[in-house]
Design a protein that fits this description.
Layout lengths: L1 H12 L10 H29 L25 H15 L5 H25 L9 H21 L5 E5 L9 E4 L6 E7 L3 E3 L7 E3 L2 H4 L6 H26 L5 H20 L2 H7 L10 H19 L8 H18 L6 H4 L1 H24 L11 H7 L4 H21 L5
Antiparallel strand pairs: 1-3, 2-3, 4-5
Helix pairs in contact: 2-3, 2-10, 3-4, 3-10, 3-11, 4-5, 4-11, 5-7, 5-11, 7-11, 7-13, 8-10, 8-11, 8-15
């Protein structure tokens, strides 16, 4: 809102300083600061309200050290994170930008699914919460929304070199210095995405069926839809599972958010994208403001969520965080980098899948279930081994930083 207000003031009233709002760097900085203020100052007040309403976490007895002390700690703190994201975004981002709109919808969508789950647990006193199939329906619905919008919305385009222009006004004419051959840079609809360790770091979803001699826009869309739904479901569940000890999900998510902000900035900047030889995505630079608010919200929430936690984010926060990360990566066409960037989430999710699958297999084969880990998810395995929560979180965060650096480095590996 402030962006549109100050743009009008700069254009018609010529107020000194109003032009600052044209700069993404300035608005991102303001979004980070605002988000930190909202989550730290007003977050404390919301925690007090949750305590007064006795919105406390019910802790299962897992035999872990210190877990009994957490009984009754306020939950649903994800509301603080969501407020810390949405308010600065609404204030400083360009609200007519389709990418920003998708991120706002994604935040509210998964936040609502998580809130419903927490509401059933806390107020209906049902420890199981929202049935798993309904969570999957919510995640699938968001994936379908993102895939359809990206594939069909006319403003979601990428800049590519074409042999002959499809419009009367190509963005740029490029002349090959060696051959003198002309190519035209145009903003076009594309099914391409970035992928590491591959020629030009680009992969076209249309190629999946071309291998079998099939070439259809419908088939391409189906492949893209399946990938998007899978990523949204996997990342949101991964974030949900990672939220098991104080500060783990929030800390790793903040690192992921910083990385996504960098990737969004270079992808939305024609100079940097050309220098790094990655896909230029017009108008996606506005996502940096959203990413700034996201990072600020995660860091601000850590003020209260670090060990010993004064509040838990609950599914309201963890499902929203996972949905945000997945949607953001998909929008900047870096979704195939998620296995590296979200490696901590992946390890946590895989540890649960392996543990459950191996237990069922051995129970069927030997009549007695056996385990790979002392406990899953993976962070509980290390707790069982005697590591303190703070040490586990710190080391996982360090791993997250290493994975974030590797993610950025892959942009130059071909």
């Amino acid at each position: 809102m402030l962006y549109h207000l100050f743009t009008w003031l700069n254009e018609y009233m010529h107020i000194p300083g109003a032009g600052l709002f044209q700069y993404i760097s300035f608005r991102t900085s303001m979004a980070v600061i605002s988000s930190l203020v909202i989550t730290t100052v007003f977050g404390g007040r919301l925690i007090q309200v949750l305590q007064n309403k006795q919105v406390g976490e019910t802790i299962r007895d897992l035999g872990l050290e210190g877990e009994k002390k957490k009984q009754g700690t306020p939950t649903m703190g994800g509301l603080i994170i969501i407020a810390g994201i949405l308010i600065p975004t609404l204030l400083f981002a360009k609200l007519t930008n389709i990418y920003v709109i998708i991120m706002i919808v994604s935040t509210l969508w998964m936040g609502a699914v998580g809130f419903l789950d927490d509401y059933i647990k806390v107020f209906r006193h049902n420890k199981e919460g929202l049935a798993g199939r309904f969570k999957v329906i919510g995640q699938t619905g968001l994936g379908i929304f993102i895939a359809c919008t990206m594939y069909f919305h006319p403003e979601i385009v990428v800049r590519q070199n074409v042999a002959s222009p499809t419009s009367t006004k190509p963005v740029e004419v490029v002349i090959n210095q060696g051959t003198g051959e002309k190519t035209y840079a145009e903003n076009v609809k594309s099914s391409k995405t970035n992928i590491p360790f591959y020629k030009n770091n680009e992969f076209d979803y249309a190629k999946v069926f071309k291998v079998f001699g099939l070439n259809s826009n419908v088939l391409t869309f189906i492949v893209f839809l399946v990938v998007v739904v899978f990523i949204v479901t996997a990342v949101s569940n991964g974030a949900n599972i990672t939220d098991g000890i104080d500060g783990l999900a929030t800390g790793t998510s903040a690192i992921i958010g910083v990385t996504l902000a960098i990737l969004a900035y270079v992808s939305g900047n024609v100079i940097f994208s050309d220098y790094l030889n990655i896909m230029y995505i017009p108008n996606s630079g506005e996502l940096v403001i959203f990413a700034g608010a996201f990072v600020g919200a995660c860091v601000g929430f850590l003020w209260y969520n670090t060990y010993p936690a004064q509040v838990f984010m609950g599914d309201t926060g963890s499902l929203a965080i996972g949905g945000i990360i997945a949607a953001f990566a998909i929008l900047i066409r870096k979704e195939l980098l998620i296995p590296i960037l979200c490696g901590v989430f992946l390890l946590e999710l895989v540890s649960v899948i392996l543990q459950v699958s191996y237990f069922k297999y051995t129970k069927k084969k030997y009549g007695e279930g056996r385990r790979i880990f002392l406990m899953s998810p993976l962070h509980h395995h290390f707790q069982k081994k005697g590591y303190h929560e703070a040490k586990i979180v710190t080391r996982f965060v360090i791993v997250g930083i290493i994975l974030a650096i590797l993610t950025i480095v892959t942009l130059k590996i071909r």
